[in-house]
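Thread: Modeling a multi-component assembly for a lab meeting

Hi all, long-time lurker, first post. My supervisor asked me to bring a structural picture of a complex we are working on to next week's group meeting, and I have zero experience with this. I have the sequence lines for every component (632 residues in total). Could someone generate the structure of the whole assembly? Inputs are pasted exactly as I received them:
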Amino acid sequence: MLATEFLVRGAVEFDEPGVFMMFEENAAELTANVRSLGFHLDQLVQQKKIVLDHVHIERSEIEETGEYDLEGLFIRLGHAIDSIGAKRVVLDTIEALFAGLPNHAILRAELRRLFRWLKERGMTAIITGEKGEGNAITRYGLEEYVADCVITLDHRVTEQISTRRLRVLKYRGSAHGTNEYPFLIGEHGFSVLPITSLQLDHAAPAERLSTGIARLDEMLGGQGVFRGSSVLVSGAPGTGKSSIGATFADAACRRGERALLFAYEESSAQIVRNMRSIGLDLEPWVKKGLLQIHASRPTLQGLEQHLVAMHVTVQAFRPAVVVVDPISNLTLERSEAEVRPTLMRLIDFLKRQQITTLFASLTTGGSATSAAEESQVGVSSLMDAWLLLSNVEFNGERNRTLHVLKARGTAHSNQVREFVLSDAGIALVDVYLGADRVLTGSARVARAAHERSAAELRREDDERKLRQLASRRKMIAAQIAALHVESEAEEAEVKFAIARESLQEKTTWQHSADMAQLRGGGKASDGPKKRKR
Amino acid sequence: MTTTTEAKTYELRLYVAGQTAKSLAAFANLKRICETHLAGQYRIEVIDLLKTPQLAAGDQILALPTLVRRLPEPIKKIIGDLSNVERVLVGLDVQPVKE
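Re: Modeling a multi-component assembly
Sure thing. I ran the full set together rather than chain by chain. Output:
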């Protein structure tokens, strides 16, 4: 399969025609088999880009007498190569030669000659062979030291889930990765993903994306999450993880960006239906091609293969936003040591594509916040932001709350918000902090009503006080006016009295002066002295 | 039985690649075997694949030299330089002629 893809891609994309020499399937069978992967060998054969040559060896028809060599194979191959100017050659599989021809000594020598011959002709060749028993790489232990590059593929079943793996055993003249890499044969052919990226070198754009929930954006420093960041939403069952995910995807579609939703719990039709209950209609986006929902059971394939499948889908669809709901299902029955590197790979991959991701994760910790936090520590360090949804059970009801546990690079809120799902979507409501607990749900509503009526009373009270104050002020003003008038009257009186007194005095003084004159002799000024005496 | 065997015509094809020692040996051996055991009942066609490589696919030739018994059916193939007379006769399904 790897070989076929190598050949087809060579022919189609690199304009390097190839020769496919089969020892097991015949041309028609191979063409039919690879058509399911989207390869149309028959067309390529017509375009003279590929030559399919089926070599049939029937042991029963062959009798060996004396010396021989495989010159016939060489000639056939040479002829096929020359007829289309091939650059690539595939031999699949050489085990058949060993099965067909009894003299292995000759075969070994001839194969060695074949490899050398292919190299001299400048051919890139893939020769497939079956894996030998035990540690032997190929059954006849020949190819591995003749070939320049040896790739082993195997198929392993762990925990009832099988994974195909690929490993580059040797590759002369290159620094190759030595790890085992999972690979997948999917609709678009063969895909491999490296275990881990070599460096943390992805760009970090400063652009922010709205989560679709205004209050949540506010909690994340006002503008939502960074583009290309990864957000973990964890919570107990029924805390609204999927709803956040769907809202996030919906927000992306509203901006005209593409969103990809990987669902591992619900089918796509079910998601569309269920999201309608919170006022999200995803169907138009699906129809417009902005939203793709990929629903599959996590047990369909191994974790690695899921990730490979995601890679392939992401690369084909090129979304701006990816929602995985939930990753915890993918990690079922997997040890943390296995899960972390695979998730890391996925996150790295998505980050390099500058895709914003939202992972939902189910926690089994129940409503106790600490337990929920603990169970997610394994993957949380890989995430840029972490929203924790939890249930608060109080007053005979469970209510959803949301915390932002972390958000790298944003001034995020440390507040708990109540998370309300209604047919108008998701809303975050401030909670009331009671004496020693947060109030949510009906308790919050009751409290709010209480506070509202209290406020009403207070306001009326205040108004009354203000009114009283106003009238009092008026009264005082009136009093002041009255006093003012009174004082004016008093003043007038005083002035009058003063005027009268001075007149009297004047009159008196005049009178005494007159008297003194009348008594004669004495000066007018003596008058009073005498009078005092 | 013997009459039917004798009535058969053996149509043989020898595939070789150039005038190598092995192909010359194979041709010489074949000639000798046929003259000895199939006198007058055979026809040999020698195909040099260096000249006509496209013919290699038709008879599924891998190893050289290869002797193909086209007729009578079924097709039989004998690879090697035909030095082992016994095995060639077995391969061609020919009753050896006692000398």
